[in-house]
């Protein structure tokens, strides 16, 4: 009885939204409970669908630096390098060299870091930043790699 009453209530409720009057409904408490449960299920389903779609976009790890966004990696590299990215005469700190060595194995990632929004916002000068692998004396640096308008020495 509650299901048929509820169906009638839902019909009256949807009619009431457009007619601006509500007819009395004897099964109203059951309708509310069933509609609340249905709404919760619908919201959960929508949340799972959105989470699934968002997960599919990042599952392939197709970014320049793998699954980690370039700007996050750039923050990890730019922070220890500090002034060495703006002045070629500054001695490159050891922490900076370690970070550049770790991410510099992938020249595409290294280039993306140097040209990233995070690096630009931090005041990094790309023409100086490309010299850091050489200034760190990294033997396995990508010599001659073209990075935008710059070439790694």
UniProtKB/TrEMBL annotation:
Q: Which InterPro entries match?
A: Bifun_inhib/LTP/seed_sf (IPR036312), Bifunc_inhib/LTP/seed_store (IPR016140), DIR1-like (IPR039265)
- Domain of life per record: Eukaryota
Domain Bifunctional inhibitor/plant lipid transfer protein/seed storage helical: from-to ranges: 75-143
Pfam name, any one: LTP_2
Biological process, per Gene Ontology: systemic acquired resistance
Gene3D superfamilies reported in the protein's UniProt record: Plant lipid-transfer and hydrophobic proteins (1.10.110.10)
Q: Which GO terms describe its molecular function?
A: fatty acid binding
Its name, as the record gives it, is Bifunctional inhibitor/plant lipid transfer protein/seed storage helical domain-containing protein
Species of origin: Musa acuminata subsp. malaccensis (Wild banana)
């Amino acid at each position: 009885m509650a299901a048929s009453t509820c169906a009638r209530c839902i019909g009256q409720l949807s009619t009431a939204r457009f007619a601006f009057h509500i007819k009395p409904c004897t099964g109203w408490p059951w309708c509310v409970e069933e509609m609340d449960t249905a709404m919760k299920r619908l919201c959960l389903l929508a949340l799972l669908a959105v989470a699934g779609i968002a997960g599919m976009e990042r599952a392939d790890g197709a970014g320049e630096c793998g699954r980690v966004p370039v700007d996050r990696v750039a923050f990890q590299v730019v922070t220890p390098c500090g002034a060495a990215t703006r002045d070629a005469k500054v001695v490159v700190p050891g922490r900076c060299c370690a970070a550049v060595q770790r991410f510099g194995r992938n020249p595409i990632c290294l280039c993306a870091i140097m040209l990233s929004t995070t690096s630009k916002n931090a005041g990094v000068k790309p023409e100086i930043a490309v010299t850091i692998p050489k200034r760190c004396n990294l033997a396995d640096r990508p010599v001659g790699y073209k990075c935008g308008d710059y070439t790694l020495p």
